[in-house]
């Protein structure tokens, strides 16, 4: 599984990345987490508002920090 957290490094982006890692640790799900900070690369994924969350190539969220429950739901959808 590949998970991308997209954002320039703002507090919201950092919070989303932290939540993703917490969910993976708690569930034992194996995934590669990539932090994308380059604005051109973020835009190339179709993300115009950050933070963005992409799981296995599918955009799951843009422009908001998700709850831990939502992060878990989006990750489990791709298992």
From TrEMBL:
Q: What are the disulfide bonds?
A: 10-13
Is-annotated flag, keyword Disulfide bond?
Answer: yes
Record: active site: 10, 13
Residues in Thioredoxin-like fold domain copies: 1-76
Gene3D superfamilies according to UniProt: Glutaredoxin
Task: Cite the Pfam families for this sequence.
Answer: Thioredoxin_3
The record's listing under InterPro entries reads: Thioredoxin-like_fold, Thioredoxin-like_sf, THIRX-like_proc
Q: Which UniProt keywords apply?
A: Disulfide bond, Redox-active center
PANTHER family, per this entry? THIOREDOXIN
> What name has this protein been given in UniProt?
Small redox-active disulfide protein 2
């Amino acid at each position: 599984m590949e998970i991308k957290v997209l954002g320039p490094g703002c507090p919201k982006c950092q919070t989303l990345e932290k939540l993703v890692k917490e969910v993976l640790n708690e569930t034992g799900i194996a995934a590669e987490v990539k932090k994308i900070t380059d604005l051109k690369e973020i835009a190339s994924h179709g993300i115009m508002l950050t933070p963005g969350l992409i799981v296995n190539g599918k955009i799951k969220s843009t422009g908001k920090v998700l709850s831990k429950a939502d992060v878990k739901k989006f990750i489990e959808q791709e298992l």
